[in-house]
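Document type: protein sequence-to-structure record

Subject area: structural biology

Format: plain text, a pair of labelled lines:
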Amino acid sequence: MSNFEQESLDYHKAQNEFDTNGKTGTLITKPCSTEQDLAMAYSPGVAFPCLEIEKDINKAYDYTNKGNLVAVISDGTAVLGLGDIGHLAGKPVMEGKCVLFKKFAGVDAVDIEVNTKDTEEIIETVARIADSFGGVNLEDISAPRCFEIERRLKEICDVPVFHDDQHGTAVITTAGLINVLEMSGKKAEDLKVVVIGAGASGIACASMYKELGVKNITMLDSKGVIHSGRDDLNEYKQMFAFDTDDRTLEDACKDADMILGLSGPDLISQDMVKSMADNPIIFACANPDPEIKPPLAKEARSDVIIGTGRSDFPNQVNNVLGFPQIFRGALDVRATKITEGMKMAASKALAALAKEPVPDYVKEAHGRGDDMTFGPDYIIPSPFDKRVLPYVATAVAKAAIEDGVARIDPASFDEDKYFKHLEEMAERR
């Protein structure tokens, strides 16, 4: 057992036999130290907010923690790079997700591991408990089941339902793509994009690139290029099937402007990189070993811009830049769903933040000195940048109002005041 493995196991256990194991707990937000406090916290005082909610269920946002509470729900079928390890084996990951919600956006989250792989049972379970929460974050549910589960729950539930494995990577890489388009002078509609991996994240990313204006997308699964001549495609892959002579990854990479890797290590060769169009971008997101390591890609050609999922290389594609802040903005306007407009607003906010001067504390966290300026090695903000919260959450809240999915009175939303509030929250974290 390596030192890191042992340290991780120790981290997740209590420091002594009387402490609580795991990474999360419950925080009481109101005083409960006197007889009067107790009378209000429970009986008889608790009856009054109950009666107010009985008259208007939206009052639950006023008198309970619903408006700052997210359910992190998984069946354990696609946990990180571990695969189908079971619902309880995935619980440490779901607890970790709750930690990130709280740390990066002040959102309370509860992990719920469901002991079923049946699509209908998962949908029914989540639908019945969703009203207790301000939002639902689906996590580590295998494709293609995850598409159906999210789609159906978005129709049923009156709170935002968001499958981060799909949309998180899409939001972050779209931000990077927006900035690369600006830097290169290319237009989205003229790009050739290659997506390696046709799972939840790959399909969500490709769909978001389409929203940005990309028309030419070649997607590959384990059997090669997804094309119109194949008869083994599910309905989600069929959306990206078109008539092409390309059959292999080598074929697809020729003259490609962008490669998105969401598959496995070392799949992209230096020759493939050399065959790409001028000023190409590569997001090699397989973790811990990307489809190609940045030094190899840059050795193949000097004009490549590359990002990975790793923190030890520039341009990290890290979902913590997205889901906590997206939910923060959605919760604060009491949104009923997360729209395409809200996701794109998050991407544009991240793209804009990458152009701002980087604070010294961020440079110190990365140990990169003064080289963190907008350019090929800095197209995505750092997860350590506290400004991510006000930038993204404000953009998402504003988009929710514009898209008509916010429950609050639009006239009551003061964008500048809200931004300032989030800045102060971020400073305290």
Remarks:
- The radius of gyration is 22 Å.
- The chain has 18 helices and ten strands.
- The longest helix spans residues 164-184.
